[in-house]
Amino acid sequence: KEYAYSNLGTGLLGIIAADAANASYANAMRRDVLQPLELADTQIGILPDLHSRLAIGFSDGADIPNWDDFDALAGAGALVSTVDDMLRFIQHSLKDSGLDSSITAIQQQQHEGTTALGWQVRNGDVTMLWHSGGTGGYASFLGIRPDIGTGVVVLTASTAYMPVMALG
């Protein structure tokens, strides 16, 4: 089977979810996801309180301006977070989401190189759910290993995407 991840599709899903929540994407995320999970340092865009703590992104040795305006693609990359909040997200994912039963179903139905609700699925000797991304000057990786109850976060102020993937 072939698959493809789509930023445009993920952005569209964000619009649909916000519409269903009868709110803007930022307000729906804040109300329905960020506040219940107590992710106080995660926000849509780079607001002043977070900007002072933000590492300057770079590529090829030059500073890169932040991508601050995602419009229709907000669901695909407008969230800005901290390591502490990302680790909190991993804890919630392992504790509250029933990932074990979801992974069992994924393993039974799909093979290496699939997606499940936006997560990339790595099957084989171990199963890992992961997602990576990049914006102007930054690259990131988040992986969860439900079988051992742990996860990893890699955040960089560099567009060197492949080393972040390899490290994750």
Topology (elements, then pairings):
Layout: H1 7-20, H2 25-34, E1 43-44, H3 48-51, E2 58-59, E3 62-63, E4 79-80, H4 83-96, H5 99-109, E5 114-116, E6 119-122, E7 128-135, E8 138-145, E9 150-156, H6 161-167
Antiparallel strand pairs: 1-4, 2-3, 5-6, 6-7, 7-8, 8-9
**Overall pLDDT metric:** 82
- List low-confidence stretches: none
In the sheet with the most strands, the strands line up as 5-6-7-8-9
The helix-and-strand class reads: alpha+beta
Radius of gyration: 16 Å
Which word captures the global form? Answer: globular
Tell me the helix content. 25-40%
User: What is the oligomer described by this structure?
Assistant: single chain
Number of strands: 9
Largest sheet: 5 strands, antiparallel
How far apart are the termini?
25 Å
Task: List the helices and strands in order.
Answer: HHEHEEEHHEEEEEH
Strand content: 15-25%
Output the number of helix runs.
Answer: 6
